[in-house]
Design a protein that fits this description.
The chain is α/β, with parallel strands linked by helices. The chain has eight helices and five strands, in the order H-H-H-H-E-H-E-H-E-H-E-E-H. The protein has two domains: about 80 residues, Methyltransferase, Methionine Synthase (B12-binding Domains), Chain A, domain 1; about 120 residues, Rossmann fold, CATH 3.40.50.280. Strands 2-1-3-4-5 form a five-stranded parallel beta sheet, sandwiched between helices.
Length: about 230
């Protein structure tokens, strides 16, 4: 089944034209062409959040579908992922908000989950809003995640799930976090999260976010809430 693509806002309209060429370049492992198309989008004043969601994430979701249906090799999938990670690193200096909120989130990919680009994009969205976003990496052991939460006392924790085969690890991580941190907001995202929302425990502090736009709205609402603190 093809992955549903969120409707693009008007500000991201140039990406509809660039996307087919970007996907082709990504599948061909053509890093320079991907960089040139990214620069073209920036020159057209596409917002970085739109670039992340409607070009990078959309393309990687399609690459993932191609791999799952055995239409491309794992090598092609890994190379495409590496190219997008390189683009994120290239853009990173542009996304850091000069004003810091004083808030912190810790994000990890659940045990067994080897995909990490989506979690890195989520970290960047938090950084755009002035948060300190700490990513623990792919295949984050649950006990290490809990130990880090105790040490760093973040304002929220995020879990990334790309492959639904790891839903058991997701539920284990949620249970461990809730045992030690019953009041901590818990965000769940990633390509696989769209299919597991009904399996999540009933908890008003667990938020399953379908895409980066939903994450952006969550951060805005959270920072504007009466309990939000921090800032320089």
């Amino acid at each position: 089944m093809a992955t549903a693509i969120p409707e693009q806002p008007a500000s991201a309209a140039p990406l509809a034209t660039l996307y087919p060429a970007f996907l082709d370049a990504l599948l061909a492992g053509d890093r320079r062409h991907c960089e040139a198309l990214t620069d073209q989008a920036l020159a057209a004043r596409v917002a970085i959040l739109d670039l992340y969601q409607h070009l990078f994430q959309r393309a990687l979701y399609q690459v993932g579908d191609e791999w799952q249906h055995n239409r491309i090799s794992v090598g092609v999938e890994h190379l495409a992922t590496a190219i997008v990670e390189g683009l994120l690193n290239r853009l990173y200096p542009q996304i850091i908000a000069p004003r810091r909120s004083g808030r912190r989130i810790v994000i990890g990919s659940v045990e067994g989950e080897l995909h990490q680009v989506g979690a890195k994009m989520a970290c960047d969205v938090f950084e755009m809003h002035g948060w300190e976003a700490l990513y623990l990496g792919a295949d984050t052991p649950t006990d290490e995640l809990v130990r880090t939460l105790r040490a760093l006392t973040p304002d929220a924790v995020g879990l990334s799930l790309s492959v639904t085969d790891h839903v058991g690890a997701l539920l284990t991580a949620i249970a461990a976090i809730r045992t030690g941190f019953p009041e901590l907001p818990l965000l769940i995202g990633g390509q696989g999260s769209r299919q597991v929302e009904t399996a999540l425990p009933p908890d008003p502090l667990i938020h399953c976010l379908a895409d980066l736009d939903a994450l952006d709205r969550f951060i805005l609402q959270h920072d504007q809430s009466p309990t939000a603190t921090g800032g320089d």
